[in-house]
Specification:
Shape: elongated
Helix content: 40-55%
Number of domains: 4
CATH topology of the largest domain: Helix Hairpins
Oligomer: single chain
Structural class: alpha+beta
Strand content: 15-25%
Number of strands: 19
CATH class of the largest domain: Mainly Alpha
Strand order of the largest sheet: 15-19-18-17-16
Largest sheet: 5 strands, mixed
Distance between the termini: 20 Å
Number of helices: 8
Length: 473
Amino acid sequence: MRGYKLMKNFVEKLTIRQGTNVIGTREKWPLRRTPQNILAVAYNYKVYPLYSDHSINLNDPPFSKGECPNIRTSDVVRFADEKDFARNQEPSTLLPDKSWYIEKNQFGNYLVFDGDENLLENVLDALDDAEIPVRRYGQSIRPADDGRKYDWFVRLNLPNSKEECRELVQRAFCIPSGRPERNDDSSGDFISEDVLKDVIGAFQKTIDDDQNRIKDLENNSNAIKAENFKLLDENTKLRRHTGTLELQLKELDIRIQAYKQELSRKKQSPEDARLLQKAEEEIRTLQENEKYLYEEIGKDDKKYKVKIENLEGQLEGKIETISQLESELKESQEYKEKWVKSKRKGYNENFLKSLLETFFPNLQFHEDSYETIIDRFEKHDSLLGALSEISKGEDHYRFEKCEGTPKADVLEYRGDSKGHIATGTSGGDRVRIYLRKDAPKTWVWIDWKKDKKDQKRTIDKFSEMDITTTLLG
C-alpha cells in the first residue's frame, strides 16, 4: 500500500472496536506511527494500528509507546490493512490453563505453576514485560488452596482481586501470532507518572495495612501478657494454699502416730477397747481427710498447668506472626524503594546515553551498558580511556577473541596487563567490555560479570543479536 503525507497530526473521530463490536469513540485523538510506518493511536497505555475507517481493533497485537513516536505532518505513512495481522490464528500461550493457578490468601496473590527452571525464567520475564510487580518467588513446599501441589510459586505485589489477577496474568502469558516485525529496542518505553503514583500508592496501602495488623497483634500480645501475670498471681496463691494443706497433713500424721503410741501402752480393758474403737474411727476420719486434701492439691495443680500451657501457646503464635509481618513490612519498604529508584534511574540512563553518543559517535552501546556504568562505577577515568582507545581503532588497544560464540565473532577488550577496568569501587576485575566489528559502527557492551555461566550467557546473547536490523530500526 502506497504511503502519503498527513495534513493533521490527529484523527477527528476515533472508533474503538473489540472484534466486530464497537465499544467506544474518541475525538481529536493524537496520531503515532509504528516501526513499519503504519498510522496508530495510543489506548490504555498500548498503541494499536489505525484503519482507513479511523478505527482500531483491540484484538490486534499492540505495540509499546516507546516503539511508536508521535506523528509529524512530514512523515510518509499509511493506514493499517487487514492483511497486516493474522487474527485467524489462535494465540499461543506460555502456560496451558491447567498447569497454573492463582491463590489469594491473607498475605496476597500467588501465581503457582508446574515446569522447570527455564520455564520459571520465561514466566518472570513475561510478568516483567507486562509490568506486573513480583515480590518474591521460589519452589512450592505446600499444596495450593485448590488441593494441588505445584512446582513453583510467584508472589505478585498486586492488591487486585483473584479474578483480576488471573486476567492480568493471562494477558501476560498470551503470545499473539501473526504480529508484524518490530524493533526489539524498548529502551524508550516508560511508565507515566500517574501510573507510578498508583503503584506506589498500592505499595503504601499494603504497608499501612501490615502496620495496622502489627499494632493489633501487639495489643493482643499485651492482653495475653496481662492474663499471664494474672495466672502467675493465681499460681502463687495456689502454692500458698498447697503449703497450708501440706502443713495440716503433717499435723494429722503426728496425731495419728501419737494415737498409735498411746494405744500400744494401754491394756486391753473394756474401757480401753471403747477408747481404741473411738481412736480407730478418728484415725479413719483423719486418713479420709488426708486423701481428700491430696486430691484437691492435684486438681488445682492440673487445672493451672493446662491453662498456663494454652496461654503460652497462644502467646508464642502471636509473637511468630508479628515477626513474620515485620519481615513482610521490611520487604514491602525495600521493594518500594527499589521500584522508585529504578524509575529515577531511567532519566540518568538517557543523560548518559546522550553523553556517550556525543563523545563517541562511531560507537554503538548496548542498552545494558548504561545500567552497569551507573550502578558499578564511581570513577570513570579508566572507562573513558578504554572507550577512547576503542574509538580510535584496533591498532590502539589490545583485545582477545571470545571462543565458542554461536554466531557472530565477539571480542573482549583487554585494558591493563590483567584486563581490568578501574571503577573506584571493589570488584573492578569483574567489569568486561565486549565488542562486535561486523556493522558500520563498533558495538560495545559494558557488562558486570557475576560468574562464568553469566559471562557465557552474555557473550552468546551478544553474538546472536541482529545488530544490522537493530541499527536500521
